[in-house]
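User: I'm preparing a small set of examples for a lab meeting where we compare how different chains pack in three dimensions. I only have the primary sequence for this one, and I'd like the structure in token form so I can line it up with the others. Please keep the answer compact; I'll paste it straight into my notes.
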Amino acid sequence: MQAKEVNVLVLAYLGDTIYENYVRKYLINKKIANVNDLQKEAVNYVCAKKQASFLKKMLDEQFLSDFEISIVKRARNYKTTSHPKSCDVVTYKYATGLEGLIGYLELDNKRERIDEIMNFILEE
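Assistant: Understood. Below is the structure token output for the 124-residue chain.
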């Protein structure tokens, strides 16, 4: 199956797991050994508010290609009626856009680009 044929929410579902895996490895490599500390620190990266801010920074700095922006917009603009109580719907949609892009890149075997995106986020 080609990535462009996959529902964007499915892409975001996949992207969420990949994103969180990168964050967890990053924090473990920082020598955080306590699971509770790892979880507290992970929230600084994986919550919708932070994901949205990372995406906005990438957009502001023109870090993403036009094609990647089109994927983000497709995921961000997908009609959904639910969002977490911890953030507003716009923030949630931006986070979904970032996750959708990562999921798309994974299915399209663009792991080097995922590395670049995650390095941009984690080296902030």
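A couple of notes for your slides: The chain has a mean pLDDT of 92. Helices lie at 8-29, 35-46, 48-60, 66-76, 89-107, 111-122.

User: Perfect, thanks.
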